Amino acid sequence: MIEVSHLSKTYRDLKAVDDVSFQVQSGEILGFLGPNGAGKTTTMRILTGVLPPTSGTVKVAGFDVFEQPLEVKKRIGYLPENPPVYTDMTVRAYLRFVASIKGVPAKAREGEVDRVAQKTNCTQFIQRVIGNLSKGQKQRVGLAQALLGDPEVLILDEPTVGLDPAQIIEVRQLIKSLAGKHTIVLSTHILPEVTAICQKALIIAQGKVVAYDTLDNLQRAHAGAATADGHAGPTPSLEEIFLKLTSA
Amino acid sequence: MKNALAIAKKELNIYFTTPIAYVMFTLFVVIGSYFFLRLLGAYEQASLMYMRFNNPEMMSRLNFQDAIFRALFGNMGVILIFVVPFLTMRLVAEEKKQKTIELLYSTPVTPGQIVWGKYLAAIAILVCTLAFTLLYPALVQVVAKDPNGVEWRSIFLGYVGLFLLGAAYMALGLFVSSLTESQVVAALITFVVLLMTWIIGWTAAETEGATREVVTYLSSVSHLDSFSKGTVDLKDLVYFLSICAIGLFATHRAVEAHRWS
């Protein structure tokens, strides 16, 4: 569904993304990990066609992001780092607007807005002005916006940031329930989140891919030395693997 | 087009949920009314004077269009210089600052549609602003009770001129707004640019020949006068429409270029 090959992005003399390649199969959830400033957000911006790459190609559902951006954008729902909300609008007016620019037909728009509001638990504050909402509520509005139009691919940049523990669990369950029908790339700092939701993890550091595999394989590859009597070594947590790989 | 309309609708929603549009309407009408009352008073005095000295020839030359509305349209053109920067400052700058522009870039909307949508909203606000001032000729018509009182054709053309002037200002303001993330900077620079297009005409008196022609042509408010005289001059149309076109084209480039920075 998503094919990224030899993707690079340079800002003046800073190499933000350096020769990154990976693929996400249809219906899969990819956990996208890395320390701050590793190039996660830049990669996601390129995937969604917000930012043009310096070199390399990205294909979403068979369409090149750079050659046929509109075809790609029709199939993508994107939640950026900061939820892209207009603080002067009400939640309903905002979602209606996003639905219309995403090409949801006028007749289905109201129903679609209600559907995503329900899914992300925005219904109780849907008439309020976004500027007066809490950070977690804004984050949920951002997530609702990404789900509008039921896109095949979801790119979520730290979707659980600013939420309280109960909401984090809710959002995780929501994302998990979207798997299968949707292809999801999810970036996060919270490692247990990846263990809880994702099948595969991609770890990048300083713009380079340092690990890209299923969680099981990662744990096997980084397992401690086998004991003398032939038992497998202790399985490391994702946290340990992450620290080991990104500290280098 | 559908996307442009959706964006225009969103912009109008924000214009009317924030105080900015109301403040600017009020400002425009208050200052406009001040000028209108002054001109009306001057008209009254002139007509009283002509009557007192029993000067029917001068009396017959006195008409609302020349005595009141030509000057009033000129004044309103100048007020637009003060009002437009505050109406356009938010348009693109705020999207960049709040990063909501990422939403527009990641949805199937082209930069052209973004620019058109925002410009359409600005034009709609301009039409609203000008519509309030229709009260002045209407008032004169009612009070004068003279079927030949107000030359509605000239009034109409005067408004066409004001609209074109405002549309050109809006296009310049939109462009400046697309260059910065700060609304304050956008408003300030727009104001200076618009002010320059006005005061450049002042130097015309000191120059002659070709320079004078050029300076007069560049001056924005001077292009309004032929409209309020009740005529349409092609060179004025070309002036206003080319500023609109240049402003929109430059905005389109700036919005597109922002992604590459």
Draw up the topology in text.
The complex is a heterodimer of chains A (248) and B (261).
Chain A: E1 2-11, E2 14-24, E3 29-33, H1 40-47, E4 55-60, E5 63-64, H2 69-74, E6 76-79, H3 91-101, H4 106-119, H5 135-147, E7 153-157, H6 165-178, E8 183-187, H7 191-197, E9 200-205, E10 208-214, H8 215-221, H9 238-247
Helix pairs in contact in A: 3-4, 4-5
Chain B: H1 2-17, H2 20-52, H3 56-61, H4 64-88, H5 93-97, H6 101-106, H7 111-132, H8 135-144, H9 152-177, H10 183-199, H11 209-218, H12 225-228, H13 234-260
Low-confidence stretches of chain B: none
Please give the count of helices of chain B: 13
In terms of structural class, how would the helical and strand content of chain A be classed? alpha/beta
Q: Catalogue the unreliable spans of chain A.
A: none
| N-to-C order of helices and strands of chain A | EEEHEEHEHHHEHEHEEHH
Instruction: Give the CATH superfamily of the largest domain in chain A.
Output: P-loop containing nucleotide triphosphate hydrolases
Characterization of this structure:
The complex is a heterodimer of chains A (248) and B (261). Chain A is an alpha/beta fold and 248 residues long. Chain A folds into 2 domains: 2-75 and 154-247, Rossmann fold (3-Layer(aba) Sandwich), CATH 3.40.50; 83-151, no CATH class. Chain A has helices at residues 40-47, 69-74, 91-101, 106-119, 135-147, 165-178, 191-197, 215-221, 238-247, and strands at residues 2-11, 14-24, 29-33, 55-60, 63-64, 76-79, 153-157, 183-187, 200-205, 208-214. Chain A has a 6-stranded mixed sheet, sandwiched between helices. A 4-stranded antiparallel sheet of chain A has the order 2-1-4-5. In chain A, a hairpin with a 2-residue loop joins strand 4 and strand 5. In chain A, helix 3 crosses helix 4 (106-119) and helix 4 crosses helix 5. Chain A is globular and about 65 Å long. With 261 residues, chain B is mainly α. Chain B has one domain (2-260). Chain B is built from 13 helices and no strands. The radius of gyration of chain B is 21 Å and the shape is elongated. Chain B starts with a helix and ends with a helix. Classes of the chains: A alpha/beta (248), B mainly alpha (261). The interface between A and B is medium-sized, with 29 and 25 residues.
